Amino acid sequence: xxxxxxxxxVKISTTRFGEIDIxxxxxxxxxxxxxxxxxxxxxxxxxxKDPIKWLHAVDDPDTAFIVTEPFGLFPDYSLTVEDxxxxxxxxxxxxxxxxxxxxxxxxxxxNANLKAxxxxxxxxxxxxxxxxxxxxxxxxxxxxxxxxxxxxx
Length: 153
Fold this sequence. Notes:
Elements: E1 3-6, E2 9-14, E3 18-23, E4 28-29, E5 42-47, E6 52-57, E7 64-68, H1 83-89, E8 97-106, E9 109-112, E10 118-121, E11 126-129, E12 141-142, H2 144-152
Antiparallel strand pairs: 1-2, 2-3, 4-5, 5-6, 6-7, 7-8, 8-9, 8-10, 9-12, 10-11
């Protein structure tokens, strides 16, 4: 991967999008990495097709996750951000908090990992993935809008 700095931007090479310029102030820090990727600490959100985005590793051109904000697709989804997570992410105002879930494809269905959301402090650009102890959610929950389209095809 090529990494170049200049003018407040970082140029990264990606296998999906080629070479792209990212503003340094858009890089999200994952101090503990993402489970399975502990060595990758810096990511950037790239717009795709609303409501879907790519969470792309800055330091590895091959690592990217498809993510979305879950509440539009799952209106009943709720979670509690524990005090230790708020403290770790330095969250002072919940309005500065973004929740993302990773999407995956299994059994020809688009699924959301509602069991392990990503919590982002948008003002500090600091994030972590947590695992909920809530039995209502699993790692593979079919995404309703996309699953219905797939069934019609």
